[in-house]
Amino acid sequence: MIGPTRLLALAALSTVALGASSRVAAADDNDLVLSRLGTISGNSVVGSNINFRSLASELGVVMAPRLLEPADTLGFGGFHFSADVAFTSISSDAAYWNAIEEPNDGTMATTGLFVKKGMWLPLPSFEVGIGAVHLGSSHLWASQGYVKFALQEGYHDLPLPSVAVRGAASRMMGSEQIDLTVASVDVVVSKDFGIAGLFRASPYVGWNWLIIVPRSEVIDKTPNIDSRDDPTDANMNFVFGDQDDIIRQRILLGTKLKYYIFTLTLEADFALAGSSVDDRAGTDMRCVDVDPSTPTSNCDATDAAGAQATFTTSLGLDF
Are the CB atoms for 181 and 174 separated by under 8 Å? Predict the structure, then answer.
């Protein structure tokens, strides 16, 4: 019999293998083309900080850690295996979404696989989980993990809700142009009750705080030109400077239904529009005020990401 530790290790190894394998295939519709966010100015390329920030913000919400759980933990010895599909809105008509291979209709689909385990250490009412999320029509994957601690749970026969806090992280893989990490902290309140003696229902609400950290790799504005044939083409490589962390907030509503060992979870997440600012030292110029004829990356970029909604359905087995 495979023990809990080995199951978690196999899930982690599978996530890494899936992410590594995604690098070798040809580009797909939702794969990133960040060179489109750069403008040739003289003998160099200037990247649009505001477009890079806004794209990373909305993509960060798409690939953010999954929530999909009420406040109650699985209990010591409990296991949960699940598969889910989610649809997240994006501002597809915004200029920054030109940085994908093909135009998008305004919705990005992701699928996920997860394994979760209840624990008694380091404190009672702990739960951990790991998994992988794939962005449809792309080679982008995210490995994800979380730790949840229930501050109060189990009072199902009393008019007391369960309350939990959770920390999670998501690391995107599959792109050679950007490193994207999303950290998450949330508070969830739920109430478990029975239905006709057959089902258990756990409706829940929560608030989620996202910290999105984008880091640019070297990007080639003219990938079809070899610098060995044209040495001046080396000037067409550019990098977006490291930016201040992007902050997004989400409100979540959902319910988990359980019959025997089978679970169905339905959830709606609503991310508020982006507003965080990358404050560059030595300048007060806003990127929106930059003259397009004289582009510069030395400006303060305000996240222009729009509000986003995610609707997720998850099927699982709860042991």
Answer: no
Question: Domain residues for 276?
Answer: 4-318
Half-sphere exposure of 26 (CA within 13 A, CB side): 1
Q: How far is CA 17 from the centre of its chain?
A: 19
Q: What are phi and psi of 59, to 5 degrees?
A: -65, -35
* Cβ within 8 Å of residue 196, ≥6 positions away: none
111 closest CA partner among 145, 140, 83:
83
Q: Which helix (H) or strand (E) holds 52?
A: helix 49-62
Count, in order, helices (H) and strands (E) of the chain.
Answer: 2, 17
CATH number of the domain encompassing residue 283: 2.40.128
CA distance linking residue 185 with residue 166, whole number of Å: 6
Domains in the chain, number: 1
In Å, what is the CA distance from 153 to each residue of 5, 150, 226, 268? 25, 6, 61, 23
Tokens representing 102?
């093909």
Q: What is the pLDDT of residues 173-188, one digit of tens each?
A: 999 999 999 999 999 9
Is the Cα dihedral 12, 140, 218, 25 positive or negative?
positive
Q: Is 7 helix (H, G, I), strand (E, B) or coil?
A: helix
The pLDDT tens digits for 197-221 are 889 999 999 999 999 999 999 999 9
Phi, psi at 259, each rounded to 5°: -130, 115
Contacts of residue 112, Cβ cutoff 8 Å, sequence gap at least 6 = 66, 82, 83, 84, 85, 86, 131, 132, 133, 134, 144, 314
* DSSP-based three-state secondary structure for 138: coil
Residue indicated by tokens 């988990």: 256
pLDDT tens track for 92-108: 999 999 999 999 999 99
